[in-house]
Amino acid sequence: MDCTSFCIIQYNNMSIEPKDSKKDQSFDQIATEVRELAPHIHPPCPNPAPLGLYAFGLTTALLQVKHTNLGGDSPDDDKGTENLVWGYAIFFGGLLQIIAGIVEIRRNNIFGFTAFSTYGGFWLSLATAHIIVNDEEVLFNSMAVQAMLVLMGIFTFVMWICTLVMNVTISILFFLLATTFFLLAGGVNNESVDTAAGWIGMATAATAYWLASIELINDIIGKGHEVIPLGRFKLNNNGGGTHVAGRIQSEGHRQALKDTKMGYLRRASINQLSPALTTGSDYPKEDERLQLDLEDIESGTRSQ
Which of 12, 57, 171, 298 could form a disulfide with 209 if both were Cys (CB 3.0 to 4.6 A apart)? Predict the structure, then answer.
């Protein structure tokens, strides 16, 4: 059960006879605001993270078959692997991640939007370049390829920094991915480094699959709660950073809610109740749970 539903049920089921009519009005005001807030913190779209992560993980793993020589080390083996990879890179690794990024726009999740859109565009661009230049006599400039991989590594490193306030699993994913990009850049002219990059890339793909599976299980079986924990950092104030229905996804989402006619769940409403809720003189202890859940909604988190 999400925070909004819990608050409404708790409010409707409480048999409270407040001594002060102002306090009664405050409860009515909070209940009304929570009901009006529900459509805003429950965007009518699914969690796109599993789709994007599976798409990314599968395509990444396929490409690493070439770099690790798992499919063979002859030129024909490499060519056969690439032919399969570029087809998947266009539709599975590219298009599906772009779709996931577009859905993240509706969820006001700037991190998911930036990540899925960028890596989806990366796969589409890489596949298109290899398909267009399908001639053994025409090669890519090695310095340009290295520059591209280093730039993608820098971008991924910045994204990794952002994951330090999310969860351990996604942080590991982006750390491995950044390492893969930098090693691939070094492996352009060094076969041993390229092979090492391939194995790190395999670990990256496995982590993406693991994270996608956790997101799917937590959303469907756990109904938004962490059935399988993702791990948390001390820096994390967002309850593990999982993308679940009912949780405000980002600062952009908070700002969007503040700009609505109803506004955000106003601090004033909770402040009016604070004396009674903290002293416990006029209301039962159950009301403290109501206050905590309301504060969770305001801060964009959920008690788990």
Answer: 57
Tokens (6 digits) for 132: 């267009």
Asked if residue 72 lies in contact with residue 140, where contact means CB atoms within 8 angstroms, the answer is no
* Closest-CA residue to 245 (of 230, 223, 215, 264): 223
> CATH number of the domain at 49-220, please?
1.25.40
The CA R_g of the chain, rounded to the nearest whole Å, is: 24
**22 and 272 Cβ atoms separated by less than 8 Å:** yes
Nearest by Cα to 118 from 129, 102, 141, 132: 102
Buried-state track 27-49, b at ≥16 Cβ within 10 A, e below 16: beebbebbeebbebbebeeebbb
Q: Distance between CA atoms of 32 and 266, rounded to whole angstroms?
A: 12
Which tens digit of pLDDT belongs to each residue from 76-92?
A: 777 788 888 888 999 99
- Please give the Cα distance from 218 to 206 (Å, whole number): 18
pTM exceeds 0.70: no
Q: Contact 106/248 with Cβ under 8 angstroms?
A: no
Residue type, 263: G
Pair 273, 26: CB distance under 8 Å: yes
DSSP calls for 185-241: HHTTS-HHHHHHHHHHHHHHHHHHHHHHHHHHHHHHTSTTS-SS-----TT--STT-
- Asked if 120 and 135 count as a contact pair (C-beta separation under 8 A), the reply is no
> Would residue 224 be called left, alpha or beta, if left means φ above 0 and alpha means ψ between -120 and 50 degrees?
left
Domain boundaries, the chain: 49-220, 265-304
